[in-house]
Design a protein that fits this description.
mainly beta, 5-stranded antiparallel sheet, globular, binds beta-D-glucopyranose
Length: 391
């Protein structure tokens, strides 16, 4: 296969090991306005060594036999870099982020690469009722709760165990009452970089009291390379003929609406930018795409949810999941103002996208949506893959 060949060609260009401070340069070449920048490095791991809330942070690098590399920090369980060869065998970093752990600690950082929990996406009015008891969460998004609250899982230091060159196990206990949620929740997320170039994320959790759980990853991708322009030219397919429309606070109305005939129809490969500025009420609500799609296969089987192609590099991303929904967020709130992004690049409007596999937003308040309740004795178990290729 062409993709395998290119990956093999790229082998040997890069060399690096986990949590070390040396030989972190991969490959360097010229940049010009017509071609994709090819100066690519995993950030210096010494920039990730810190003590945050009394716990040690670091940078862990997974590597497979094709020399694809994925750097992850245990601060927020964040994917920091994804180094892959493009159609010409040049190494490209397709993940937005920071060079230093301190970048990720800045107020207003937009969850770059993060593990999101206890409840990914929004809970309306930052309130829900479970088994007769009402819980109030810290409201961090115009009166709503977003991504588990200000000190959600993205802002916590996870215990890290590097199992082998291609597996990192992250775990933590989110204590009863953390960010307003009931029950001690023991969470484990295993990142595995497979030899067919997938980043596999296996999430498990158990609780000692009824609670709600919705875990996801918030990696921002730019398949033309982070910092290399906007993502409007990326070709997106989502295997969903329905989505969940939202109100002006981005909370689902509860309706499940057909995408046919709307700018939300990505059932056939379509450029993200083709209709993003269309005169459409839902696009206005989200300031672009910032919605949950209802996957055609709502079962817990692992299935393809979405596929994206970066036309300049030929790099492809397939998202496979056991979840029933996926949030496609088109980077509408990136505005070039974030500080200290990788290589000092300003991340301008829509220069990255997220595909957040999940249960639907505000499910705890929407009885018609699949349940996100986890009870003692049950095990929360989901899997998502980001599978990278080239065409
Ligand atoms: C949300 C956006 C939000 C972004 C934060 C996305 O998952 O849907 O509304 O602004 O996360 O970076």
């Amino acid at each position: 296969m062409k993709s395998n060949l290119l990956l093999i060609l790229a082998a040997g260009i890069v060399g690096l090991s986990a949590c070390t401070n040396n030989s972190n340069k991969t490959t360097t070449s010229k940049t010009d306005s017509d071609s994709v920048s090819n100066t690519v490095m995993i950030p210096d791991s010494s920039n990730f060594i810190a003590t945050v809330n009394g716990k040690q942070t670091g940078l862990y690098v997974l590597k497979n036999k094709n020399n694809v590399q994925v750097a992850i920090t245990n601060y927020g369980g964040r994917i920091v870099s994804i180094l892959v060869p493009d159609k010409d065998g040049k190494i490209v970093d397709i993940a937005l982020g920071y060079d230093k752990v301190a970048g990720y600690e800045q107020e207003g950082e937009p969850y770059f690469g993060a593990l999101i929990g206890r409840y990914g996406n929004r809970i309306g009015k930052a309130t829900f009722t479970l088994e007769g008891k009402t819980y109030h969460l810290p409201a961090n998004d115009h009166g709503q709760s977003l991504h588990g609250g200000p000190k959600g899982f993205h802002a916590q230091v996870w215990d890290a165990k590097k199992v082998n060159d291609y597996t990192l196990e992250l775990s933590r206990v989110s204590v009863d009452g953390e960010e307003g949620y009931p029950g001690n929740l023991a969470v484990k997320v295993v990142y595995t970089l497979t030899d067919d170039n997938a980043i596999k994320m296996d999430y498990t959790a158990t609780t000692d009291k009824a609670t709600v759980v919705n875990l996801t990853n918030h990696c921002y991708f730019n398949l033309n390379g982070e910092g290399n322009g906007d993502i409007n030219d990326h070709i997106l397919t989502i295997n969903a003929s329905k989505f969940t429309p939202v109100d002006s606070t981005l909370i689902p109305t509860g309706e499940i609406k057909a995408v046919a005939g709307t700018p939300f129809d990505f059932t056939k490969p379509t450029a993200i930018g083709d209709r993003v500025n269309a005169d459409d009420e839902q696009l206005k609500m989200g300031k672009g795409y910032d919605h949950n799609w209802v996957l055609n296969d709502g079962s817990t089987n692992l299935k393809q949810a979405a596929k994206v192609v970066g036309p300049k590099t030929g790099i492809t991303l397939e998202v496979l999941t056991t979840e029933p929904g996926i949030q496609f967020y088109g980077g509408n709130f990136l505005d070039g103002k974030l500080k200290d992004c990788k290589g000092g690049k300003p991340y301008q409007h829509r220069t990255g996208f997220c595909l957040e596999t999940q249960h639907f937003p505000d499910s705890p308040n929407k009885p018609n949506f699949p349940s996100t309740t986890l009870k003692p004795g049950q095990t929360y178990k989901t899997t998502t893959l980001y599978k990278i290729g080239v065409q």
